[in-house]
Amino acid sequence: MEIDQILDHIYKLPENSKMILKDQMEELVYPKNHILLKADKIEHHIYLIKSGIVRAFAPQEDHDITFWFGQEGETILSMRSYVENKKSYENIELLEDCVLFQLNIDRLNQLYQSDIHIANWGRKLAEIELLKIESRMISNELLSAKERYDLLMSESPTLIQRIPLKYIASYLGMTPVSLSRIRKEK
């Protein structure tokens, strides 16, 4: 996805404001398996995904717990670092080679003070992230494992071809064996 599409998907900015925001971004390329964000560190950037797929996870003693996938057009950020300038709790791993747009959080906060349109873009970004979290929490509490799988496949059908099944199983809160059983029933 091109940067204009990604920015407009969050909030349609006037051209002048969009140019100011784009001028603060750097396009970066990282290889598969790169750890972009590390838990227990303050993250000073947000990223927009031009191409590739990533996962957010928390390491546990016997296995990682995957709780989010991001793909083209989505934002990568530690909300804790973004909002409170505190250490993040998540790791972000690239599951494919990725092209990302990087934006410094301090600089972004300065732009919020000087451009109301960019401030509104930031508000919409936070709202989108909040809704993702709410949706995830509700589905985990109210849906069965099979229903969570069906929802994932209806919302993002290509993920199953791009992400190792062990990460999808972890994301859905089940074992890889249970995921295989659900997939065989289809």
Description:
- The chain has 186 residues and is α+β, with helices and mostly antiparallel strands.
- The chain is 49% helix and 23% strand.
- It has helices spanning 3-10, 15-23, 79-84, 105-114, 116-142, 145-155, 159-162, 165-172, 176-184, and strands at residues 25-30, 35-37, 45-51, 54-59, 64-70, 75-76, 91-94, 98-104.
- The strands form 2 sheets. The protein has a 4-stranded antiparallel β-sheet.
- 25% of the residues are buried.
- The mean pLDDT is 95.
Provide a compact summary of the structure.
The chain is an alpha+beta fold and 186 residues long. Helices cover 49% and strands 23% of the residues. It is globular, with a radius of gyration of 17 Å.
Spell out the key features of this protein.
globular, 23% strand, four-stranded antiparallel beta sheet, 186 residues, alpha+beta, 9 helices, single chain
Layout: helices, strands, pairs:
Elements: H1 3-10, H2 15-23, E1 25-30, E2 35-37, E3 45-51, E4 54-59, E5 64-70, E6 75-76, H3 79-84, E7 91-94, E8 98-104, H4 105-114, H5 116-142, H6 145-155, H7 159-162, H8 165-172, H9 176-184
Helix pairs in contact: 4-5
Helix and strand element order: HHEEEEEEHEEHHHHHH
The SS-based structural class is: alpha+beta
> In angstroms, what is the radius of gyration?
17 Å
Shape: globular
What is the tally of beta strands? 8
N- and C-termini, Cα separation = 32 Å
- Helical segment tally? 9
Proportion in helices: 40-55%
- Beta content comes to 15-25%
Q: How confident overall, as mean pLDDT? A: 95
Major beta sheet, strand line-up: 1-8-3-6
How would a crystallographer describe the biggest sheet?
4 strands, antiparallel
| Regions with little confidence, pLDDT below 50 for 5+ residues | none
